Amino acid sequence: MMLKIEDLHAGIEGKEILKGINLEVNAGEVHAIMGPNGSGKSTMSNVLVGHPKYGVTQGKITFKGQDLLAMTAEERSHQGMFMSFQYPVEIPGVSMTNFMRTAINEKRKALGQQPLSPTDFLKLIKEKRDLVKLDAKFMNRSVNEGFSGGEKKRNEIFQMAMLEPSLSILDETDSGLDIDALRIVADGVNRLKSPETSVIVITHYQRLLDYIKPDIVHVLYQGRIIKTAGPELALELEERGYDWVIKEFEDSQK
Amino acid sequence: MSAGKNYIDIFSGNRDLIDKGSAGAMNALRDKALDCLVRNGLPHKGLEEYLHTDVEEWFEPDWGMNLSRIDMHVDQAQAFKCNVPNLSTQLYFLANDEFAASDTAQKAQLPDGVYVGSLRQAARINPGIVEPYYGKLADMDRPGIAAFNTMFAQDGMLVYIPDGVVMEKTLQLVTLLQSPVDLLTNRRILIVLGRNSQLKFLLCDHTLTTNNFLSTQVVEIFAGQGSNLEFYDLEETHNANRRVSELYISQEADSHIEADYVTLHNGQTRNTVFSTFAGRGAFLSLNGIAITDREQHVDNMTFVDHRVSDCTSTELFKYVLDEQSTGAFAGKVLVRHGAQHTESQQTNRNICLTRQARMFTQPQLEIYADDVKCSHGATVGQLDENAMFYMRQRGIPEAEARMMLMQAFVGEVIGHVSLEPLRDRLNRLVEKRLRGELSKCEGCRACR
What we know:
The complex is a heterodimer of chains A (254) and B (448). Chain A is α/β, with parallel strands linked by helices and 254 residues long. Chain A has a domain of 177 residues: Rossmann fold, CATH 3.40.50. Chain A is 37% helix and 28% strand. Chain A contains 8 helices and 12 strands. A 6-stranded mixed β-sheet of chain A has the order 6-9-10-3-11-12, sandwiched between helices. Chain A has a 4-stranded antiparallel β-sheet with strand order 2-1-4-5. A two-stranded antiparallel ribbon of chain A has the order 7-8. In chain A, strand 1 and strand 2 form a beta hairpin. In chain A, helix 4 crosses helix 5. The two termini of chain A are 34 Å apart. Chain B has 448 residues and is an alpha/beta fold. Chain B folds into 2 domains: 278 residues, no CATH class; 64 residues, no CATH class. The longest helix of chain B has 17 residues. Classes of the chains: A alpha/beta (254), B alpha/beta (448). At the A-B interface, helix 2, strand 7, helix 3 and strand 8 of A face helix 9 and helix 10 of B.
């Protein structure tokens, strides 16, 4: 099992947003988490990657057999968790190359491996850049600084490719992308897919799911997963909106 | 006033000794300097320009000065720490406040008419290149240290570059403070650049022994028409060091100066810069970095006087303050009547890493001309939390992420350094400093 979330309650600044999430993700699976605005999608991804502003009040998360909540954000990353940010952060003065080299070598250090040689590192960069069609000039620039919206998202997938995570969380990766950029990003994600890796796609819209096909679709509403089904659910949500699922859920609670 | 009075007595009682250990032009200004000190006293917290740094208090202990010019042993080999890999410099020393040239510098063939050496010696044998300049920029009759320094300074360095001469090699002056007892030193540096001459000058300020030091430093720079100067002042002293420095610059038309202050490690520091544009089309880039922790204190005050039209000044000062350290920056830009087409930009950005660290910043812009482009900005903040988290998500541990962000922050200033080997060296020094490696200088008492 890649990830197991049990009765997760979490929130920010004392306000409970997730109210009992249960979720199981197996290796090789692609899960989509959909839901209306304010349902807790971003909270869920931030809690998973260990954002210090979010607090867990109850529940348990197991990641590759380990207690995820006992790990720092960087340890989670070393163990193979990756999040593509909805709003990638600009870091003036830190070059992409320096940033990536540090990230890769810190992970290797944590796993007891030797640092990558400069030649191997450059080779790796070249290979992964090609995957998302990211120009070489970006490597000398500061992280995300002066990148367009599409370039920032491609840069996220480039970093994902570099770090070879076992679980990737794509947080609203489609927001702000035109159709070409969306295709490049999705193509990158698909090429990185393997029977050993899993993906959680968090999205408001079905659009991205045309390109990254989910195995399982969940609907998050008011901090709970109220429906889980196959990929056809995404299409149905696109067509009919969320109201019917919410009504179905509310009726079942009566 | 009490501290100042004490030194007035010392001065009067030792006047012969002071003169004997110095020469001509330096001695000639001492009476005037005494008048000024009697009138103004030492700079204290009651003055607006010294609000955050009580320099007078630093003088209160009964400091010893080497007025009789006893030969003090100073280990010049220690200057190897200042080696800049891949940068070949002509190396000179101020052993406490006594000038010395390295063996190679002594043998070096300097271009015709160039003088690089002891200020006292020059005042003795070649007064023609000292008298017209010495003390002509330093304003002794205002709150500051110029009067005190002029009273007591007995030696220092003179760099005199005649018209049209380009000094290829960087001149490096290493100040080494080494003494068996607490010591007050007074050093004086005079740089005279002829028309269209060029010079790169690197000043490194070091303490070698762990006792208390207080240094006064006055630098005067005359930049002739079309001249080009890079001036770097790097302080790397220990916690028991106090330094009060003043830099006076006068720029003729079309001259170009880059002046950078780097306070890498220190005790208490006050640097003041007075810069005047005397001719049109001149350019000044004035920058600074301060990295502080513990009880350290760095106060930089700059005053840029746009006296004539068509000149450009840019300032960028950045501070990273950790623990209980404090910083101050006050920058005044004066654009006088008629100084049209002035361009001036002043920026001061600061990061306080703890709740105890304090930064005081005060930009001041006074403009009396209407066709100018002037701006200033100051910020005090913390490291960007979003950037921190982004880096941690990618597997960069928190401590490393902080380090990288701080280095990136001050790196913007280092980017101004045009000597590439020096830029690399500064980046490495800053990294070492931020990692806490520089403050461990062989377990010395003063840095613990």
